[in-house]
Amino acid sequence: MIAMLTVLLYLGLILEPRTAVQAGAYENPSLSVYPSSNVTSGVSISFSCSSSIVFGRFILIQEGKHGLSWTLDSQHQANQPSYATFVLDAVTPNHNGTFRCYGYFRNEPQVWSKPSNSLDLMISETKDQSSTPTEDGLETYQKILIGVLVSFLLLFFLLLFLILIGYQYGHKKKANASVKNTQSENNAELNSWNPQNEDPQGIVYAQVKPSRLQKDTACKETQDVTYAQLCIRTQEQNNS
């Protein structure tokens, strides 16, 4: 007898998943989500499936490749619609997808209501909140440090450029001053040898005549003196 019951139970477990479900026999329930259908990973959310029909159970189904499902007994109060609240703790990107809920009676688990409105759940990845401030601060510090280094390099090259320009300008100025001094010295020498207000012939004459007079002093003293006096008078007349 016990063996017979075990066989029947085993067959029931095998056949139950293959039992066809008839959907659309009743009015569709309403599905809502709290706090939002767009949340970050690790947040807890809750789906609420409600209907004016007092169903015995509600089933929440995730459409798509994962095909997750949750079943809860309905709750209801007097003059209030029946409902069931499905709480999903610490959701992950695996929960992304479209959700619908159905209602059915316990004595007819294969006869479901029409599907509820669909809700698209979007779970986004998030960084560890404990490490985010440190990482953000480190990135900010690195950016500031890079900016300061770049500024110092630009200032260094600008200062070096200005120093080179100043050195070249000073060297050129010294060279020009040296050339001017050389030209001034040359002009001074030329001016010393060529006075403007004197007669070159008179200078030569004054330089030559005394030597000539000295050479002829022994033999022609009287004539040289008279000639020298005439020359001096001639120079005085020319100067006047």
Largest sheet: 7 strands, mixed
Termini gap? 172 Å
State the shape: rod-shaped
Q: Count the strands?
A: 10
Q: How large is the count of helical segments?
A: 4
Give the CATH level 1 class of the domain at 18-124.
Mainly Beta
Q: Quick check: average pLDDT?
A: 75
Radius of gyration from CA coordinates: 60 Å
The CATH topology of the domain at 18-124 is given as Immunoglobulin-like
Secondary-structure element pattern, one letter each: HEEEEEEEEEEHHH
What fraction strand? 25-35%
CATH architectural grouping of the domain at 18-124: Sandwich
Structural classification = alpha+beta
Protein name: Leukocyte immunoglobulin-like receptor, subfamily B, member 4A
Domain Ig-like: 29-101
InterPro entries: Ig-like_dom, Ig-like_dom_sf, Ig-like_fold, Ig-like_Receptors_ImmuneReg
Signal peptide: 1-20
Descriptive overview:
With 240 residues, this protein is α+β, with helices and mostly antiparallel strands. Among the domains are: 18-124, Immunoglobulin-like (Sandwich), CATH 2.60.40; 197-240. Helices cover 46% and strands 25% of the residues. It is built from four helices and ten strands, in the order αββββββββββααα. The protein has helices spanning 2-15, 132-193, 200-215, 221-239, and strands spanning 22-26, 30-34, 38-40, 45-51, 57-63, 69-73, 82-88, 97-105, 108-113, 119-124. The strands form two sheets. Strands 1, 3, 5, 6, 8, 9 and 10 form a seven-stranded mixed beta sheet that branches. Strands 2-4-7 form a three-stranded antiparallel beta sheet, with no helix packed on it. The model is unreliable at 1-18, 200-209 and 217-222 (pLDDT under 50).
